Give the backbone structure.
Amino acid sequence: MKIIYSKKCGEFFDKSEEELPYRILKTAKLLRKNNFKFIQPQKATEKDILRVHSKEHLDVLKYEKKDSPLVDYATLHKNIFDYTTLSAGGAILAMEKCFEEKTFSLMRPPGHHAGKTIGGFCFLNNISIAVKKALDEKKAKKVAIIDIDVHAGNGTQEMVLGDERILFCSIHQSPKYPWTCLTNEKNCFNFLVKKKTREKEYLKIFEEVIKKVKEFNPDLIAVSAGFDTFKKDRIGSIKLEKKTYRKIGKIIKSLNKPTFSVLEGGYSNYLPECVLNYIIGLQ
């Protein structure tokens, strides 16, 4: 297992938000202690980003256009273009290396709410950028994206909707922000989980996600790995245990496909242990 990581992604923050540097800094520390291999990403190129996002979207980040109508519930931090292209580059590197061994991109900011607009702590849709590159460069013919964050991957759905090469499955709490992705549409399938759902019921629903992935039979699996379904998370209301993520990792491993994961949410002090359990399950 290779961990894609750069300490630069710990440089920006806003105390009023939950998406803070400790998320990756403490997680990196725990993974190093457990002897995982770390590799540094490079920034995603504009060509890579423009596979998914518009030039206008790119310019909002590049020139920090805080008053742009494309900005919806997000703080355009100073040098945000550098940080977010590095995070997208982490997803790309995770995709490229996963054909050798499984990979995890431990980067921020996250990406699955970034679609035609910028919001929910997300600026570029990291996982969609990586998946589209894999398809365009013929590294895979079909890709399944599995989103296990407590929130719906609305931006990802927006970016991949109608692309028959991609299956998108999001298992998320409902009702909850972003208040969308409530029904299935074309190649996008949404599995809704009620507030206070515990491990047994969650995994039962997750098996339906896996069934859909098996039917699609992809060459590559990409996971939007959110850990805000943990029972002590400050944002989510699902009641998963730390060891639940080990079980989720094992289930994904059982698909026996090249797999890369990209960090999305997870805002409890137990995030490092949740990530570690998930990675152990994948191995």
The chain has one domain: 2-282. The two ends are 7 Å apart (CA to CA). The mean pLDDT is 97. The longest strand covers residues 166-173.
